[in-house]
Amino acid sequence: MGSNQAFGQKNDDTKIAFLADVHLQDVYADLGKGEFKGIYHPQTDKYATIRTMKAQINSTRLFNENYFAFHEALKKVVAQGIKIVVLPGDFSDDGQPMNLKALNSILSEFSEAYGLRFYLTTGNHDPVTATRSPGGKYDFMGPGGKPQALVSDTSYLRHRLPADLPVAFSDQIAYGGYLDVLEELGAFGFYPSEEDVFWTHPFEALDYEAYSFQKAEKNAVLANRYFDASAADSLPDLSYLVEPVEGIWLLGIDANVYFPAGGTGIFKGSSVGFNLAKDHKSHQLQWINEIATEAEERGKTLISFSHYPLVEFNDGSDDLLKKTFGPNKFQLARSPLPSISTAYADAGIKVHVAGHMHINDTGIFTSENDNTLVNVQVPSLAAYPPAFKVLTFGQPGKIEVATHRLRDVQRMDEFFPLYKMEHDYLTKQHDPAIWKEDILSAPTYLDYTSHHLSELVRLRFIPSDWPEQHTAQLLALNGLELAYWASLENSDLRNDFLTDRSLPSKALKQLSKNLKQQRIRKSWLVNMSGQELITTFYFVKNGDQLAQDDMDRDRWKAAEHLMQTIGELTPGQNESFAHFMVNFAKIFTAMAKDTPSDHFMIDLKEGTVESL
Fold this sequence. Notes:
Largest sheet: 7 strands, mixed
Helix content: 25-40%
Strand content: 15-25%
């Protein structure tokens, strides 16, 4: 080894923080000399470059308040004395120059002030396209709370824009490419640092003994990091292996896959992940296997990280989700197939840390060759549940994983007066999909993201993902009516109830008695609407153990009992609603009874996960 070994530290109790899906947007960006500078905020005396609340409510991520949440998370990292921070992709909104610059500024600030060392990998939002390309958004907030279009140039303008939508131009909103990412953020893992013990990438020989920083720096230039995407095209791969402290190897896998966009010369990302990357970046698997073998021989603890998961994240419900909702719902294309998990487990990856899905989850997969892969899903800082993970390397052969939640975020409500103005405007416009104003009364960031998810379910997920006929029936029933329906003995009685929805007093009395035996009050179910049941499902799906901790205990106990009861039904052939509800209940129950995902220990030798 070269002289860099002096920088190594023993990995006893080394802690590494993983902050996923920051989706940073500069909320006070300098857009250049154009007419639009943002919306003037009298309380700060600045022009805010923010997206509308309507845009946020209809997106799986926040665009604005996550800027402050990221600062809060980094402060928590500093307070715990952690020095190594990994950002597994989607660190920016869409790789725009203004957002890459803002991220550079924040990372540099914390590096210089607190000695933090950052290691990044790419996500489907950074970069969206392999090279810089026209970009923009049509939902920035403009004067009066009205939407404002902001695009990089005229080529990105949509046809038939609303006549009253103002349009502004700025090159700061273009989609950045790999070169833009490297120019702004190359120092944060994409290139070697003198502080690293070791650093390499897939396109050079893995030579630990002869390592020198000077050689690594020379070999790390972008020109040396291309692969053949087709017979005619080469694309970058910013994967790398780094040893930030002695004994720990962090393997950052760039699993972005790009395809040509209709003769434009632009390669656009797919957002699918390893289901495509395994074949389209086939050079990676051999490299990963070589690294895993070397790590084993040298006694290094290998942790891979990527934006994309390596194990399915629906708790074994993928097939049932496809059957119930359709193959193109619930982002099922992003869920790794068993053959994909097998390939990477057999290549030697034992622990993989991922983002992308904005969920809290732990997945375990064991291949036929008895190789176990643990996939740790890190929640997004821009969605419910806002949190990050800390991996502690203390006991030999074991890794402790702790989830650190964001509840209070300073300046979280900075833009609330502007959203109020937007809400007033939408009210006057009689917007049929107006968001509920009570989100502006959220006392904490956790409450705010909870409101966001609830509205996202109401305004986007239910209309887009749920079958209309069955959903209409479910939304028309409350929890007590569902419990009575599920207690009926045969399909004819159940179908009759769905038609007349009458609750006979004698049957209701018996149902109340049965509920009492389960220590469930009738009022809990009466107050639970069908929409609330669906919303509860999304909280469990996204938050896992964290959601159960956040939920009202009575609400959770009632929902869990109801879904277990429905899941035990045996529907008749003429009961399409019952078949739908049984499948829904089984999916719900599977997601509620999952591998520990809050605070747990991974045993690398045994391939087990135990709650702490």
